[in-house]
Design brief:
Number of domains: 2
Radius of gyration: 15 Å
Strand content: 25-35%
CATH architecture of the largest domain: 3-Layer(aba) Sandwich
CATH topology of the largest domain: Aminopeptidase
Largest sheet: 7 strands, mixed
Helix content: 25-40%
CATH superfamily of the largest domain: Gcn5-related N-acetyltransferase (GNAT)
Distance between the termini: 31 Å
Number of helices: 5
Shape: globular
Order of helices and strands: EHHEEEHEHEEH
CATH class of the largest domain: Alpha Beta
């Protein structure tokens, strides 16, 4: 997918956190705190990206690397700007910056979030398992999804059944 016109993607900065918090509150029923973003941004093994249009933050993603696996911990787009390719552009930049064609990515997504599931599937993620009652706000299950060289080829033979590191989305 090509990047939407006028969209810039760069590293997320601490100065972005007030805009991140505003999007986070509108995007999720139980948003991350600013402290959670600061923690993830301070990790040397993480990759946090911002998508901007002019001076306005349009979306962001937070990804942490554990050994050889990248865990997409958070991705959000301003609700007013959804369906414009911003999340796809953030993911494409994430894969590029990970810098390895054999890189593996994993994430959890709410079972009810069909739009996100479809986005991830278009990007080569495949459902590998279920984490029951993962989300604390309502006890909703999370689908565990993986993107590996095998899933990009349409195979599921080497997709792990669970995440290497269990995290809870509040």
């Amino acid at each position: 997918m090509t990047r939407p016109p006028t969209l810039e993607i760069r590293l997320l900065a601490y100065s972005d956190l007030s805009a991140v918090a505003a999007i986070e509150r509108r995007a999720f029923p139980t948003p991350w705190s600013i402290a959670m973003f600061v923690l993830e941004m301070s990790k040397s093994t993480g990759l946090c990206l911002a998508a901007t249009r002019g001076s306005k933050l349009a979306g962001y993603t937070v990804c942490s690397r554990y050994d050889s696996v990248w865990h997409v911990m958070n991705i959000a787009v301003d609700p007013e700007l959804r369906r414009e390719g911003i999340a796809s552009a953030l993911l494409a930049e994430l894969y590029e910056r990970a810098g390895d064609a054999s890189a593996q990515f994993t994430l959890e997504v709410r079972r009810s979030n069909q739009a996100a599931i479809e986005l991830y599937q278009r990007d080569g993620f495949r459902i590998a398992g279920l984490r029951r009652r993962y989300y604390q706000d309502n006890g909703e299950d999370a689908l565990i999804m993986w993107r590996t060289p095998a899933t990009l080829e349409g195979r599921l033979d080497d997709v792990p059944a669970a995440d290497p590191v269990a995290h809870h989305r509040p």
